[in-house]
Design brief:
Order of helices and strands: EHEEHHHH
Structural class: alpha+beta
Number of domains: 2
Helix content: 40-55%
Strand content: 15-25%
Number of helices: 5
C-alpha cells in the first residue's frame, strides 16, 4: 500500500476534486489454485488525512468497501444488470435503483432454507403463483 499526500494537492487543483487529501495505490497478488499468481494495482482517492489514518487503516477501509461491493452491488449488477442501464439524467435511473432494491429485499424476505439468493430466485421463478401468495397477493 502506497499513500501519497503531496500528489493529492495536484489532483485536487488540476482535476477539481475538492476533498482529495490522499492518493492510494494498492498492489495485490492474486493466487488461484493451479494457476500462476497475477498482480493487480488499484488506485484510490480519499478525503481522509494520511497524517491521521495509517496505511493499515486505509487497507481495512478498502477491504470493507469491497465487501459491500462484492455482496450487494454485485447482486444488483449481475442479476438485475443495474450498471448496464442507460436511463439518462431524468428520474428513471432512480426508479430503476428503487425497483432493484425492492427486488433484493423481497428475495431476502422469501429466503427460507436456501443458501444463496440465486436459489431463492430460481424457486420463485419456478412457481410464481406460490410466491405471490406468500407476499399476500391473490
Amino acid at each position: 500500500m502506497w499513500v501519497k499526500k503531496w500528489d493529492a494537492d495536484l489532483i485536487r487543483e488540476q482535476f477539481g476534486i475538492p476533498n482529495c487529501r490522499s492518493l492510494l495505490r494498492l498492489d495485490k497478488e492474486v493466487r488461484h489454485p493451479g494457476k500462476l499468481p497475477s498482480f493487480e494495482t488499484r488506485y484510490f482517492i480519499s478525503s481522509l488525512d494520511p497524517d491521521v489514518v495509517t496505511a493499515s487503516q486505509f487497507q481495512g477501509l478498502i477491504q470493507g468497501h469491497w465487501e459491500v461491493e462484492n455482496c450487494l452491488h454485485w447482486q444488483k449488477d449481475f442479476f438485475y444488470r443495474e450498471d448496464k442501464h442507460v436511463l439518462g439524467r431524468d428520474s428513471w435511473g432512480e426508479v430503476w435503483t428503487v425497483l432493484t432494491n425492492i427486488a433484493l429485499s423481497l428475495t431476502q424476505l422469501l429466503r427460507r432454507k436456501e443458501r444463496t439468493l440465486k436459489e431463492v430466485r430460481e424457486r420463485c421463478h419456478a412457481n410464481p403463483t406460490k410466491t405471490a401468495k406468500k407476499l399476500g397477493l391473490a
